[in-house]
């Protein structure tokens, strides 16, 4: 896919924003890029392996895929959307536990959890 001003604007936005965003949220932030263009570009970037995407509650979220992201897992707070990179040792432990159950996590797996702030809000 060739480079356009709109694609470059989207890539710059994704590199600056550290937490996953839905295509609609991204389109609202990029006022000069149409919503359908955002959806199309995200699809291409996902296929090219430049963004990480996952679905939650029928919504697809996207985050820029740093070059080191394939070395560890990610977790997202299901209440506030906070997105964290799990350290290498923790990622390996989780992967070993999953393998012991006969399952393999793919590189796009995002573990859903509640962050400490949201747990405090709900009293857990």
Kindly list the characteristics that best describe this protein.
124 residues, alpha+beta, 3-stranded antiparallel β-sheet, 3-stranded mixed β-sheet, 6 strands
Write structural notes for this entry.
This protein starts with a helix and ends with a helix. Helix 2 packs across helix 3. Helices cover 42% and strands 20% of the residues. A hairpin with a 5-residue loop joins strand 4 and strand 5.
In short:
The protein contains 5 helices and 6 strands; from the N terminus they run αβααββββαβα.
Write the layout of secondary structure elements.
Layout (H helix, E strand, L loop, with lengths): L4 H12 L4 E2 H7 L5 H13 L3 E6 L2 E6 L9 E4 L5 E3 L2 H13 L9 E4 L2 H7 L2
Parallel strand pairs: 4-6
Antiparallel strand pairs: 1-3, 2-3, 4-5
Helix pairs in contact: 2-3
Count of runs of 4 or more consecutive helical residues: 5
Helicity level: 40-55%
Across the major sheet, the strand order is 1-3-2
- Report the mean per-residue pLDDT as an integer: 85
- In what range is the share of β-strand residues? 15-25%
The secondary structure category is alpha+beta
Q: List the helices and strands in order.
A: HEHHEEEEHEH
Give the overall silhouette. globular
The value of Rg in angstroms is 16 Å
- Contiguous runs where pLDDT drops below 50 for at least 5 residues: none
Counting DSSP E segments of at least 2 residues, the number of strands comes to: 6
Major β-sheet annotation: 3 strands, antiparallel
Query: What separation lies between the terminal Cα atoms?
Result: 47 Å
């Amino acid at each position: 896919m060739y480079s356009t001003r709109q694609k470059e604007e989207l890539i710059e936005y994704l590199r600056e924003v550290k937490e996953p965003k839905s295509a609609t949220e991204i389109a609202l932030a990029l006022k000069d890029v149409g919503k359908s263009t955002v959806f199309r570009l995200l699809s291409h970037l996902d296929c090219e392996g430049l963004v990480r995407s996952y679905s939650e509650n029928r919504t697809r979220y996207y985050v820029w895929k740093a070059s080191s992201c394939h070395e560890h897992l990610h977790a997202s707070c299901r209440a506030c959307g906070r997105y964290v990179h799990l350290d290498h040792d923790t990622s390996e432990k989780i992967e070993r536990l999953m393998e012991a159950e006969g399952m393999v996590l793919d590189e796009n797996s995002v573990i859903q959890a509640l962050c400490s702030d949201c747990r405090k809000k709900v009293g857990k």
